[in-house]
Design brief:
Elements (H helix, E strand, L loop, with lengths): L1 H43 L10 H39 L3 H21 L16 H4 L32 H7 L12 H9 L26 H25 L8 H5 L3 H31 L13 H17 L1 E3 L5 E3 L3 H8 L1 H19 L5 H4 L6 H24 L9
Antiparallel strand pairs: 1-2
Helix pairs in contact: 2-3, 2-7, 2-9, 3-6, 3-10, 6-7, 9-10, 9-14, 10-12, 11-12, 12-14
Length: 416
């Protein structure tokens, strides 16, 4: 009996041991299978596909970021223009070679951020809707003798006509801007440019207006006081117009344009693409470069008095790139960076997106390669082909922008 009980206990112990061994074997097999599956998954995910976000939410984020980018760049433009105003006031109060040079340098500096903002045009936004200030800010080409004297005509222009314009005021100059003709420009960056540099009749450099034109006691000039007053007035007007644009795009300001813009992500995208497509093609490649290339005329370049056209072109191209990437760097080096069209297109059609990213770099390189000054590049046999390359690359970029719009189910009707 004792033996039998011992045998039963021994048998039960062996069975228990076998069961435990079986369980361990099963666990080992399962663990191996799990690890194998894990390795397989790792192999499959060596190049994982990013999860597609909610595209409507992404569009809203892009619109919001664009609005911030626009506000930031207009604010940067205002700050540089305000610095320019300080130097111009100092120049008019004490006209000499040094204060004159400082005012011109400040004008050139102010053009850097403003040139990038031109990618926010062409969709009836605050800058160029029916009541927008674009025509008062940056209109060109400018008929010089509408404002002041030119070679051979010492008594022409508003400055030299106290009989018809006895009192110079901001209201008067706004009324006279583009009156009786688009070339009758009386305000804006290029009016200031002409008053600082004078007529550009020189092959090897910009206009050579002397500071003496503003020295009240100098008998060699005439209407110096009116010329200085005119310069102060148009500079003040430019500041006011930039302040308006900053306000139109300011965040957390009820009822302004920005509030309407960010409310509709799809419409915001259409406006963004229309803006950069129009600037890339008809405006920059066409009006600002191809026309001058065809005519070879100095008068057809954008900033002819200062010979700053090459910078205008580079900044316009950079403005297009800024919008696509959702990025802007202020002149003080502060970088604003957020979701741009590139992020959306990486999910919609990344092949097209990569083409556009490459083309943006190609355009940037082509524009930077244009010889300086632009008015000589459009005339010389060595310079003309380089300008033509930039024109062609801008037009190719415009074609890509239209394709991007189509991929997003947006129809763009761009001017040729």
């Amino acid at each position: 009996m004792t033996f039998s009980l011992y045998a039963d206990a021994s048998r039960r112990a062996r069975l228990t041991a076998h069961a435990a061994l079986f369980v361990r074997l099963v666990l080992v097999v399962l663990l191996g299978f799990t690890l194998a599956c894990s390795d397989s998954d790792d192999d499959d995910n060596s190049n994982p596909t990013p999860t597609t976000p909610n595209l409507d939410n992404l569009k809203a984020d892009i619109a919001e970021n664009y609005a911030t980018l626009v506000h930031t760049s207009y604010l940067d433009s205002l700050q540089l223009a305000s610095a320019m105003q300080t130097t111009i006031v100092a120049f008019v109060n004490n006209p000499n070679a040094e204060t004159h040079a400082a005012a011109k340098e400040a004008w050139l500096a102010a053009r850097v951020p403003y040139g990038q903002t031109e990618s926010y045009r062409f969709y009836d936004g605050p800058i160029d809707d029916a009541n927008g200030p674009e025509g008062a800010l940056n209109a060109w080409p400018l008929d010089e003798n509408y404002i002041d004297y030119v070679t051979g005509f010492p008594d022409t222009g508003i400055v030299n006509d106290p009989v018809n314009f006895p009192e110079l005021t901001k209201e008067l100059l706004r009324d006279l801007n583009e009156k009786d003709g688009e070339a009758n420009i009386s305000t804006g960056f290029h009016a200031i440019e002409f008053l600082l540099w004078g007529q550009d009749g020189f092959v090897d450099g910009p206009g050579q207006r002397s500071h003496v034109d503003f020295v009240l006691e100098d008998a060699a000039a005439s209407n110096q006081d009116r010329r200085g007053q005119y310069l102060l007035l148009v500079t003040e007007m430019l500041i006011e117009d930039l302040q308006f644009l900053v306000g139109a795009w300011a965040p957390d300001q009820s009822g302004n344009y920005r509030e309407t813009f960010v409310a509709d992500g799809d419409e915001a995208l259409r406006s963004m693409l229309l803006g950069i497509g129009s600037l890339s093609g008809a405006e920059l490649a066409g009006e600002r470069m191809a026309v001058a290339l065809d005519t070879r005329e100095q008068e057809d370049e954008h900033s002819c008095f200062s010979d700053n056209t090459h910078i205008d072109i580079i900044m316009n191209a950079l403005g297009i790139k800024n919008v696509y990437l959702g990025r802007f760097e202020t002149t003080s080096g502060v970088v604003h960076d957020g979701p741009g069209l590139d992020e959306l297109m990486s999910f919609v059609d990344d092949t097209l997106n990569q083409e556009m990213l490459a083309q943006l770099d190609t355009v940037e390189t082509a524009c930077a390669a244009i010889p300086v000054p632009f008015d000589q590049a459009i005339r010389t046999e060595s310079g003309r082909p380089i300008v033509q390359v930039a024109v062609d690359e801008l037009r190719a970029q415009t074609t890509l922008i239209v394709s991007i719009a189509e991929a997003l189910d947006i129809t763009l009707n761009l001017e040729e």
